[in-house]
Amino acid sequence: MADKIRCKCARCTLHELRGPIILITIGVLFLVDQVVPGLSFGRLWPVILLVIGGMKLAESLASTEGHVDS
């Protein structure tokens, strides 16, 4: 497993960051739910869909220069 070459192209890097970015977004939405009166998670959950869509768009537009097939 250690011999596996990881791709460092922009598209693969963004793909690897998708999960952590979504988790951070969910955490921020729960924080806003607790701190800002009148803004609940129930009203803000579409932001998660916007973040996912933005990440997919960024991945599709990112360069694949230097891509390594695994």
Short description:
By secondary structure, this protein is mostly helical.
Written description of the protein model:
- The protein has one domain.
- Helix 1 runs antiparallel to helix 3 (46-61).
- By secondary structure, it is an all-alpha fold.
- It is built from 3 helices and no strands.
- The model has no long low-confidence stretch (mean pLDDT 90).
Radius of gyration: 16 Å
Quote the beta fraction: under 5%
Q: Got a strand count? A: 0
Q: Tell me about the biggest sheet?
A: none
Tell me which oligomeric state these chains represent: single chain
Determine the number of helices (DSSP H or I, runs of at least 4 residues).
3
Count of all domains: 1
First-to-last CA distance: 12 Å
Fraction of residues in helix: 55-70%
User: In terms of structural class, how would the helical and strand content be classed?
Assistant: mainly alpha
Low-confidence stretches: none
What value does the average pLDDT take? 90
Q: Give the topology string: H per helix, E per strand.
A: HHH
Q: What coarse outline follows from CA principal-axis ratios?
A: elongated
